[in-house]
Amino acid sequence: MAEARASNEDIFMCPICLDLLKDPVTLNCGHNYCLGCIKGCWDQEDLKGVYSCPQCRQTFTPRPVLNKNNIVAELVDQMRKTRIQTTARVAFSTGLEVGVECDVCTGRKLKAVKSCLECLLSYCDTHLKAHNELIGRKHTVIDATGQLQERICSRHKKVFEIFCRTDQSCICYLCMVDDHKGHDTVTAAAERTDKQKQLGKSKMTLQQRIQEREKELQELRKAVETLKSSAQTAVEESERMFTEMMRSIERRRSEVTELIRAQEKAEVSRAEGLLKRLEQEIAELKRRDAEMKQLLQIEDDIHFLKTFSSVSDPPQSKNLSCITVSQSLSFDAVAESVSTLKKLLEDLCKQDIMKIPAAGWSYSCVVINVFSLLILLIFGRSS
Length: 383
Description:
mainly alpha; Herpes Virus-1; 2 domains; 3-stranded antiparallel β-sheet; disordered N terminus; disordered C terminus; TRIM8/14/16/25/29/45/65_CC
């Protein structure tokens, strides 16, 4: 089927451009050509005044008037549509992106290397050479592209060569005297040059902005790293100082405990001595009381009188004021002082820490202030 389709396509191929006929015309000898192709050949034979068929070499004098063969044109149009649909189905079924193919190749399509803006066809190396030999270098040829129709004016079928600045659109030269008459128009090349200059300026501005943003990014990253390092240093320093404070407080707590215990021991020892002396005095007084009780019970007057002198005089009573326990034995004042110190320390910590975001203090400064005042309060009150 592929061979049959290729054979059918050959019937409608132009012998000059080797592609499907475009605006086909039929010569008196029966051979078909593209209207543009045969005109190009006969334009070169105008000097001779004799015009020939490129295939059979039959000559014609004068130059024949060429008319479009509508029947052949319709058949070629159907053939072209079939080719496009077949190519689309193959691309869709394979899922592969097909490059620009040569529009002249039959059967297996070769990759196109150039596209002609006059013929609106893409050519492989072989057919490009044939195109150039027949047409010469008159046609505008560009790198192969599958978007040829986008370069052609849909109304006049001419290549876009003009740019309308008024409407900001690409137009052909016929549009200049039609819809765009009186508009600000320049060649596409001139507009591209102007747009390139604008693009160059925009690119420089963009690059400058990128450099500025990259610099700001580096500075911000550096600031973040500095902040992290500063915070880590502050944490380590705070930990060290708080550890020192806790150790100092622990030492001071032990010292205060030992001091309280020493004072307790001294006062208790003194009190125990006083207790012993009081107990002895009470025992002596009780003994005298018993003797007086016995004396009162004696009936012998002489014996009573002789014994009275040794019993009637009570023993010397000691000064009771020296027996009173010292008020220092009450340690309520110590507990009150420690409680006051605790409250002051908590208030100080709260005040200084709240100043960190407002005044921009470093953690180390706060810790040093708290540590210094704490030592001052502890040792100052202890002294």
